[in-house]
Write a structure and sequence with these properties.
With 287 residues, the chain is an alpha/beta fold. The chain has helices at 14-25, 37-48, 64-77, 104-120, 158-176, 195-199, 213-224, 232-239, 262-265, 267-280; strands at 5-8, 29-34, 54-58, 81-86, 124-131, 183-187, 250-251, 257-258. Helix 3 (64-77) packs parallel to helix 4 (104-120). Bound molecules: NADP nicotinamide-adenine-dinucleotide phosphate.
Length: 287
């Protein structure tokens, strides 16, 4: 990765920071993104302590104007971007809107990767890696894309729903950029004991999982404390020669190519999500 520049959203903590650590170790210049200036500076200092090239930009990427600002600042610092990792996640316990009036998990998992990738296309020369999560693969509810009808159910969660939508959107994006040298793939990280998981209360889970949440709380630090494991699939997709030129593919936590869920492959779903993203960013993204 020497001579290559990587941008990772949500990378001043959690899985994103470990992904950054892995790519710095491979020699990449890494630009971190987080909301908190102190955590951002500390993360850049920590990851750059061994002589690596690490810098940080402060932005809340669930806000469209900050996504635009981030893209402008990246363009000021780099004449090319080799890898973009859309890593930011969100999981509020109930339906919440951003300042743009967009449902938060839809913003974090679908609209932000859509917008940031579009805005950075003029700089991008290589790979886009989008992170799915939870239990993706259920049906995409076209009348409930922003959880207008339901946010949580017996097995349903808007978190899983938006991660499945991200997969559908990624497939459509891979098609859009085919032949340009830019690739778009999706990584499944697996579980990590991260700030997001630590802050999730039982009330934020689908009803059937709530009884096991206290058990998870106790076991998670021991079972899922090593965040280098959930960072593996992103590091692989960002750096491995094995995936050079591969696009429109889905990789498991063991870095193996795996099948897409049927709902992500469904053209009608892809088009509905793409159209909604276009409508929500009409002012922001030149298409
Ligand atoms: N953890 C898991 O078990 C798990 C499992 C499957 C998939 N995933 C997915 O993996 C990705 C990373 O998960 P994680 O658990 O590491 O997340 P996390 O704990 O929320 O990550 C924390 C990092 O993200 C930054 N961040 C959060 N919201 C942001 C925003 N709106 N704008 C900019 N930065 C933001 C935080 O910055 P500040 O400190 O400044 O707030 C911090 O650097 C997510 O897409 C998640 O859905 C996670």
């Amino acid at each position: 990765m020497r001579g290559k520049t990587v941008l990772i959203t949500g990378s001043t903590g959690g899985i994103g920071k470990e992904t950054a650590r892995g790519l710095v170790a491979l020699g990449a210049r890494v630009i971190l993104v987080g909301r908190d200036p102190v955590r951002a500076r500390q993360a850049a200092d920590e990851l750059g302590a061994g002589g690596g090239q690490v810098e940080a930009i402060v932005a809340d990427v669930t806000r469209l104007r900050e996504v635009v600002g981030l893209a402008v600042r990246v363009a000021e610092r780099c004449d090319r971007l080799d890898v973009l990792v859309n890593n930011v996640g969100a999981s509020p316990p109930r339906r919440t809107l951003t300042e743009d009036g967009v449902e938060v998990t839809f913003a974090a998992h679908v609209l932000t990767p859509f917008t940031l990738t579009h805005l950075l296309l003029p700089l991008l020369r290589g790979r886009v890696v989008n992170l799915t999560g939870g239990i993706p693969g259920g049906p995409i509810e076209l009348d409930n894309l922003q959880a207008e009808r339901r946010y949580l159910g017996w097995t349903f969660s808007q978190y899983n729903h938006t991660k499945t939508m991200l997969m559908a959107m990624s497939l459509r994006f891979a098609e859009k950029v085919a032949g340009t040298g830019v690739t778009v793939n999706v990584a499944y990280p697996g579980h990590g004991h991260t700030p997001m998981n630590q802050s999730m209360r039982a009330a934020g889970f689908p009803y059937v999982y709530r009884p096991i949440v206290p058990l998870l709380r106790v076991a998670a630090p021991r079972l899922f404390g090593d965040l280098s494991k959930p960072a593996r699939s992103s590091v692989h997709l960002a750096s491995s020669a094995e995936v050079e030129g591969v696009s429109g593919a889905y990789f498991s936590m063991r870095c193996r190519r795996t099948d897409w869920p049927a709902s992500a492959l469904d053209r009608r779903n892809q088009e509905a999500i793409w159209t909604l993203c276009e409508n929500l960013t009409r002012e922001t993204v030149r298409k």
